[in-house]
Hints:
Blueprint: H1 5-29, E1 45-53, H2 57-65, E2 85-95, E3 101-104, E4 116-119, H3 124-158
Antiparallel strand pairs: 1-2, 3-4
Helix pairs in contact: 1-3
Amino acid sequence: MNLFGVMDVSASALKAERVRAEVVASNMANAETTRTAEGGPYQRRHVVFEAEGDSSFQSSFVSHLGTNLGLNGLGGSVTAANAVSGGVAVTGVISDASAPLRRYDPQHPDAGPDGYVAYPDINPLTEMVDLMGATRSYGMNTSAVQAEKNMVSSSLDILK
Length: 160
């Protein structure tokens, strides 16, 4: 990993957490949506993350052991120093398959013949916890970018 590798990894995490926060905000905004273009109530959405990076046998082997191995007889040295884990990517946003909540409200325009209305199964507390997690992760990655920026600045100061 080069000097800017930390920024690349943190940038991927910032993008992923931004998508996560957007999905949580969408879930909270549509917590009472009973009518969608697809028909029926809004379905809660989840973000699926996937690790980016080298998935070769060498990197898996080294990251599993976590130490310097020095296996020179295998055609090269395998060390933990050159085992770099990558960033994170959003592989998709999936809809929750849980059944909608049914509330009795015969005056609602979307009420069925029995007087019940189907609402999305969205818990505001769960959404707030997810949003706080996304916010914390975003903050951690901005701190990593700031630390990397300070390292680059210190390196440039050496050249003065």
